[in-house]
Write a structure and sequence with these properties.
By secondary structure, the chain is an alpha+beta fold. About 40% of the residues lie in helices and about 20% in strands. The strands form two sheets. A three-stranded antiparallel sheet has the order 1-2-3, with no helix packed on it. A three-stranded mixed sheet has the order 5-4-6. α1 (about 65-75) crosses α2, α1 (about 65-75) packs across α4 and α3 (about 105-120) packs antiparallel against α4 (about 120-130). It is elongated, with a radius of gyration of 20 Å.
Length: about 160
Amino acid sequence: MRCPYCGHADTQVKDSRPTDDNSAIRRRRACPACSARFTTFERIQLRELVVVKKNGQRSPFDRDKLARSLIVACRKRPVDEERIERVVNSIQRRLESMGENEIPSNIVGEMVMEALQGLDKVAYIRFASVYKNFREIRDFENFVENITEPPKGDQNL
């Protein structure tokens, strides 16, 4: 593993342990050249996933991009990083278990929407505003009305 600080090609593993949810191995490493310490994570990858965007463009699935979008949606909300990591792991496992190498971007977006709806309503609305491309205040109003309406049959008048 190359040192991210000095670029030295051979670093030493000082400690290895599984993450809390056992989805990865966390390794503490040290660089013999500059003495810097850093952490790496080793994860199982079942298949190479490619995301097919609406315009037909294909790009490799980027787990970090998914995590960043969730972090942005959850910024300044009471959602800790561990919960976000579990959501990312869950979405990645679901995508890999679909059996397809090429995944339409709308499938990924809907999985994120579903996860955020159960995680934090404000983060859900933030993500939806970008994902569904809200243009006007009325778009927000319509969306919020649909998520705050009680289910049919539960209205006690």
